[in-house]
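Quick one, probably user error.
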């Protein structure tokens, strides 16, 4: 009989601990909700519909598609550091290609990086 009483005591203690754990979880969730509301109240308000950006009068800006060519890298054997590039630190400049014909810009040799070619 003593073993049965001990098992009942353990199960009632376990049940009590589960209730306490459940209450703690609920309190933590309520605290997180309250904290979230406080943080949200400190943020700037959302813009009203009339404050939203508007389309230009001429309609949406169209996409420009053109072939561009990079500035050439000097072939004197020296290396360029980022601050020595023409456009400034780490920026390379490009300019429109004289020919906008797609046939002039096709790569038939497959030697670009990642193309699976031999790189010849």
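Nope, works fine. Designed sequence:
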């Amino acid at each position: 009989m003593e073993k049965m009483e001990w098992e009942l005591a353990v199960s009632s203690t376990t049940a009590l601990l589960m209730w306490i754990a459940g209450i703690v979880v609920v309190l933590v969730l309520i605290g997180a909700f309250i904290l979230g509301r406080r943080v949200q109240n400190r943020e700037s308000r959302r813009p009203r519909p009339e404050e939203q950006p508007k389309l230009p009068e001429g309609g949406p800006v169209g996409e420009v598609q053109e072939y561009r060519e990079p500035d050439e890298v000097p072939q004197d054997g020296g290396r360029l550091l980022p601050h020595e590039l023409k456009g400034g630190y780490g920026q390379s400049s490009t300019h429109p290609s004289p020919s906008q014909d797609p046939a002039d810009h096709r790569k038939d040799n497959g030697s670009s990086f990642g193309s699976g070619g031999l790189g010849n």
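The first strand starts at residue 68 and ends at 70.
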